[in-house]
Specification:
single chain; mainly beta; Porin; two-stranded antiparallel sheet; 2 helices; OM_porin_bac
């Protein structure tokens, strides 16, 4: 029996013994979410080496069950959260698999020949303890949403992590968070494996972090976090968010973010090639990066206009956790990839975090509730990055741009109430092989969502 399965059995036993405790069940909630995803990716043309990228047209169905308990009575309360996931490949997959052998997009796990598996599943649980306004969760169904780590939920099923996270709100306006994570299950994986750096090929089972958000006033929040992925990188984050009310239905938001990252352990040692950071140019594969971004959003009624600028330093790309390059314990790269970054430039296809990249971006969004159509929203964004430092100085500098469009609608009443539809379309173009054979890509995602809450 796998450790995660054994732990789930133990947690289930705890649930059974606590079932009669007031608060544990009275304050609990259970939901079943359904997501249907049609994913289409079309590489527009071969790369400079003549290899055509992988066409992909795939439809999959996912189910996500969540049980979140309340707490047992007393000074120290105990609880349990349980999660179950199931994915089903409905049709389609990857074309041209044998052309270049590159890893396909992770909608579902793949078999040895690159074809999608028929179905897959994953289960997990978090035991939790609460004292006053401090809460500890330990388990393998953690989904952090922090500046230094964002759980990815961009495809069919969410990415989850194993470890422990403590959150404290004892001081008014201040939220403190700390934790240690040891493994992750990718958005298209049934299994948990060690953590790794994006573009790293070796695993690490120790990601530690601590930080906090302090609400100085109702309109101003400041943030600081520190994170360390053992043998890969150390990272400091500073953030500031300010909302200036101008008039009724009108505001101006400033959002500033800064990351400072340096090497740790084996990443800085010449002999450990598997721990090197080979995502574009870097000095001997060592992590050495400063990334800052500034976003300004003007909101007027249902309109929101966003403009921003992002700068990645010239010594190396921005590091973040992504297990996509790690070959797992079964010798396969089985859907482990897929990551989110706490940046606006974390777009549908790219994330604009390459060495030296200078990105200008903008977005316009509209909430049609102002026109009497509640539940309907639309947005279009454009990002242009240049001055990208390529693998060697002789290659010069590269550039890329991406255009993203999306429409979301959630039914507000009737039999379809709560049913959501999302249509997303993105186009990525580069003037060099930044993405190998995926240098120029069109991508479409059509998503149907519905969540049923058990009474």
């Amino acid at each position: 029996m796998k450790k995660s399965t054994l732990a789930l059995a133990v947690y289930a036993g705890v649930l059974a013994t606590q079932a009669g405790a007031a608060g544990f069940l009275d304050d609990s909630k259970a939901t079943l979410s359904s997501r249907t995803l049609y994913f289409e990716q079309d590489p527009r043309e071969p790369s400079s080496n003549g290899a055509k990228g992988q066409d992909q047209r795939q439809t999959a169905q996912g189910f996500l069950f969540n049980f979140i308990s309340g707490y047992t009575p007393g000074t120290v309360g105990f609880g349990l959260d349980v999660q179950g996931m199931y994915g089903l490949n409905l049709s389609g997959g990857i074309d041209n698999r044998a052309v270049n052998g590159s890893t396909p997009n992770t909608v579902s796990p793949t078999s040895s020949d690159g074809t999608p598996v028929a179905d897959w599943a994953r289960a997990g649980a978090n035991a939790k303890v609460k004292l006053s306004k401090t809460e500890l969760k330990v388990g393998n169904a953690l989904q952090p949403n922090l500046p230094i780590l964002v759980s990815n939920d961009g495809r069919l099923l969410p990415q989850t992590f194993q470890g422990g996270i403590v959150t404290s709100k004892e001081i008014d306006g201040l939220t403190l968070t700390a934790g240690k994570l040891t493994k992750a299950a990718g958005r298209a994986s049934s299994n948990y494996d060690d953590l790794s750096l994006n573009a790293g090929t070796k695993g690490s089972n120790n990601f530690q972090f601590a930080g906090g958000d302090y609400k100085v006033t109702k309109d101003l929040t400041v943030q600081y976090y520190y994170a360390n992925l053992e043998d890969y990188y150390k990272q400091h984050f500073l953030g500031l968010v300010h909302v200036l009310p101008i008039a009724e239905d009108q505001s101006f938001k400033t959002d500033l973010r800064y990351f400072h990252s340096t090497s740790d352990g084996k990443n800085g040692q010449t002999a450990n090639a598997g721990y090197k950071f080979n995502n574009g140019y870097s000095d001997n594969g060592e992590v050495d990066n400063n990334t800052w971004t500034a976003m300004f959003t003007y909101t007027l009624g249902g309109n929101a206009f966003l403009l921003g600028y992002q700068s990645v330093s010239d010594d190396g790309a921005m590091p973040f956790i992504n297990n996509g390059s790690v070959i797992d314990s079964r010798g396969r790269n089985e859907g482990e990839g897929g990551a989110s970054v706490y940046l606006f430039t974390d777009s549908m296809i790219g994330n604009f975090t390459r060495t030296g990249e200078q990105t200008r971006f903008g977005q316009y969004s509209y909430d049609f509730a102002r026109l009497g159509i509640p539940g309907l929203k639309a947005a279009v964004a454009y990002l242009k990055g240049d001055q990208i430092r390529l693998q060697t100085a002789s290659l010069g500098r590269g550039s890329e741009w991406e255009r993203d469009m999306r429409v979301d609608y959630v039914f507000q009443e009737g039999l379809m109430k709560g049913f959501g539809v999302t249509l997303r379309r993105a186009n990525l173009r580069t003037d060099s092989d930044l993405y190998g054979s995926q240098a120029n890509v069109d991508q479409t995602r059509l998503i149907f969502n519905y969540t049923y809450a058990f009474k």
